[in-house]
Amino acid sequence: MNSKRSETADYEVDRQIGFFIRQANQRHVAIFNGLIGDKLTTTQWAALSKLKQIGPTSQNHLGRETAMDVTTIKGVVDRMVKRGYINTAADPNDGRRLVLQLTDEGHAVIDNNLAAAIQATKDTLEPLTPGERMMFLELLHKIT
Amino acid sequence: MNSKRSETADYEVDRQIGFFIRQANQRHVAIFNGLIGDKLTTTQWAALSKLKQIGPTSQNHLGRETAMDVTTIKGVVDRMVKRGYINTAADPNDGRRLVLQLTDEGHAVIDNNLAAAIQATKDTLEPLTPGERMMFLELLHKIT
DNA sequence: TCATTTTCATTTGTATGCAAATGAGTATCG
DNA sequence: CGATACTCATTTGCATACAAATGAAAATGA
Q1: CA-to-CA distance for A131 and A119, rounded, in angstroms?
Q2: Which residue is closest to A137 within chain B, CA to CA?
Q3: What pLDDT does A3 receive?
Q4: Which fold has domain B42-142?
Q5: Which among A26, A61, A84, B49 is most buried, taking Cβ atoms within 10 Å?
Q6: Which stretches make up the HTH marR-type domain (chains A, B) (predicted)?
Q7: What integer pLDDT is reported at residue A10 of this predicted model?
Q8: Mind listing the pLDDT tens digit for each residue in B55-102?
Q9: How far is the CA of B128 from the C1' of C19 (A)?
Q10: The CATH fold of domain A15-142
């Protein structure tokens, strides 16, 4: 008996946790995109709403707060700056830092899309009962 | 009272389901990358192991089986062909189809990395008790 | 103080991930 | 049979996502 072969036979990639997580993310993103109104992506929404929550901050710090790599947050911020939602300025106290701040337009786009974002969360969890939702959130948080 | 403002104040993007799913996926991918031995990504692994499971098939079909867009699966397959893990041939019965098949090297790379892939699943679920793992899988499957 | 380390932002390169459009081949059905 | 619809693979464009390297600025500690 070749144990390697028997393991291979048992293994099904589409029953692994990674596969499910990837699919769940795909579904959530699709729901979000279908509800959001200003062609905002989930990461752009995360960056904007987090920036609103914590106030003016540096680019890398905003990235850490939103679980984005320095390269990723830079791309997101660049696009939000280009669209006029975020303003950048040099930090007078630290020559390295780029201070990010929401523009009035940035605040407005958050207000305009908050309901859709909340609905996206609801719709994503719709297949679960209220009790299951609590449990799911808790378990998901544990493996993060 | 401005209800829009109060909603905004309550909303925290890093407590939303989408944020957790994205982070969970990041963590799993990092674990997988740390264990896998041949610079294979999670999607490349999914494509290879699924191709082994279902046998020779078309590119789009493999994409559907692995939850990948036609563009995404094309990129993955192209890279696996380039590395010699997948072989392509025209389907004599259907002029549109490209029949994909694992090469000997492709079979070998699966055998060499199966243990790592299994370990990646285990490590990802490590923070949960056995009971929680069952529950988590079930809930994750429901929202997929 | 001055060398070491750390942090910040940027750039390059590679790899998903999806929308939209295209062209070629196949299936369906009136 | 022939028009229509569908499927397959491809291409383009845009948006994450991360590794690795770089240069500038700040913090640290001997």
Answers
A1: 18
A2: B17
A3: 44
A4: Arc Repressor Mutant, subunit A (1.10.10)
A5: B49
A6: 1-144
A7: 82
A8: 999 999 999 999 999 999 999 999 999 999 999 999 999 999 999 999
A9: 38
A10: Arc Repressor Mutant, subunit A (1.10.10)
